[in-house]
Amino acid sequence: MLRYLTAGESHGPGLVAIIEGLPAGLTVSQGFINEELSRRQKGAGRGGRMKIEKDKVEIISGIRFGKTLGSPVAILIRNKDWENWSDVMSVEEVKEKPKKVTHPRPGHADLAGILKMNHDDVRNVLERASARETAARVASGALAKLLLSELNIKIIGHVIKIGSCVSEHKRLPQIDDADEIEASPVRCLDKKAEVKMLREIELASSSKDSLGGIFEIIVYGCPPGLGSYVSWDRRLDGKLSWAIMSIPAIKGVEFGDGFELSGLFGSQAHDEIFYDDLKGLYRKTNHAGGLEGGMTNGESIVIKAAMKPIPTLSKPLRTMDIVTKEPVLAVKERADICAVPAASVIGEAVVAFEIADVILEKFGGDSIKELKRNYDGYLKQIADSR
Questions:
Q1: CA separation, residue 203 to residues 44, 74, 106, 196, 377 (Å)
Q2: CATH code of 72's domain
Q3: What does the pLDDT average to over 344-363?
């Protein structure tokens, strides 16, 4: 079983991730993890925090001479802004405590969190509920990507909508499109839509507002049979949905043509199966997004995720003071105008981790060599059956 746990607050000393279950012998590049962290920090509409933090990973266990040992990998990402918050976020008791935050923000974890935990200071909630935590997830996902790369499984994410601006790019991005996506400030392949998206972000910024949107994640190279139809909690579409929905501000997930399928006849909605002596079994369409019955079917996995506008606004929404119960404006914290491009990078990471988990579940192996032997044997079995 592959799993990870993160810890850390937005303005604390740093973020920590512990990743357990990686097989021994996986080549790990600290530079690659840092590149993934840098990708998360880029994109039009990002807030002032990105100018402060230049995330770098410190690997403190589980790797020796560039290879995993098979023991848990521990990662630390320091918060550079900690020096400005050491009093506010002090671990030790202080004589003069900072002013409590008592104006919960609509759309955040603030109100539900203080009621759940019996806190009288919203900061006790917002620090951990912050999307800053996703830096640790991106670092964890980078390790999963390295494992998948050993099996020639690749993942790419891109933005298809910001605000009311929608990409008209019809072809699914390929791995070769990665550089062009990275060069776009909104991670969009449609240049006309990119211009409109940037304009809408500027408008939201000048209006002290925020924007959401839709991003898409595609997984190439997965063999059929990952996941399971046997038990509800082992269905891969369920695991992927859970992972994507756990990203802050995500409010909807669909696979393939998703909600559009609900308005079609069955004869239009499903991917017919064909056979060719050269191709073997194949499909001409991928309406299902690569998943049938909770398992991969051999086609590319296609996932779309809808992100709501960031709820922290420079022009705060109305709320109430949790002490006085008087109407007030919500607390203002540093925040993004639009984080959809960054969310697509986080989406890649959490999807990579879930795919790596089901790979290890099915093929096992305490070492990369053993895993690849088992995996190659399965691919041969499938090829022979065709």
A1: 12, 42, 22, 10, 55
A2: 3.60.150.10
A3: 98
